[in-house]
């Protein structure tokens, strides 16, 4: 609940006229107040993109969805970077050998059989390697 209250406070700061909605002009002023630059057209397009009920304004729920979504995009981007560190160069998968190599760089000594055992519970298609979706599952546990 605390996070929702923080969103509500920020939303109310953006909602200059207090009508419970953020219009494109309020969004533009808000972005400028934090040092950003956005044209009226960009603000209009952003509101249209994020508006869930089609009224041309952002509700608190729209605002929360956008903020939470941005966090998810950042997490996905971080996971992709981590995956690239572990995968066999350009193969699109993490093999027991590539996992062993990365763990070794991190100071963890494992043999290939131990790495196979680490991969096995998350290897959903049984091919002996981890693709990105399997890696995401592994990292969420």
UniProtKB/TrEMBL annotation:
For whether the record's keyword set contains Transferase, the answer is no
Q: Which residues cross the membrane?
A: none
Q: Which GO terms describe its molecular function?
A: calcium ion binding
Q: Does the keyword Magnesium apply?
A: no
- Domain EF-hand, residue spans: 2-37, 38-73, 74-109, 110-141
The alphabetized UniProt keywords are: Calcium, Metal-binding, Repeat
User: Any idea what this protein is called?
Assistant: EF-hand domain-containing protein
């Amino acid at each position: 609940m605390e996070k929702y209250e923080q969103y509500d406070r920020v939303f109310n700061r953006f909602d200059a006229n207090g009508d419970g909605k953020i219009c494109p002009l309020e969004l533009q002023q808000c972005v400028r107040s934090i040092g950003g630059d956005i044209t009226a057209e960009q603000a209009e397009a952003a509101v249209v993109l994020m508006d869930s009920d089609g009224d041309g304004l952002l509700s608190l729920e729209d605002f929360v969805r956008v903020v939470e979504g941005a966090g998810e995009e950042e997490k996905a981007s971080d996971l992709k970077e981590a995956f690239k560190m572990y995968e066999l160069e350009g193969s699109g998968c993490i093999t027991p050998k590539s996992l062993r190599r990365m763990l070794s760089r991190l100071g963890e000594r494992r043999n290939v059989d131990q790495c196979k055992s680490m991969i096995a519970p998350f290897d959903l298609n049984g091919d002996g390697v981890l693709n990105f979706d399997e890696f995401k599952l592994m990292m969420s546990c």
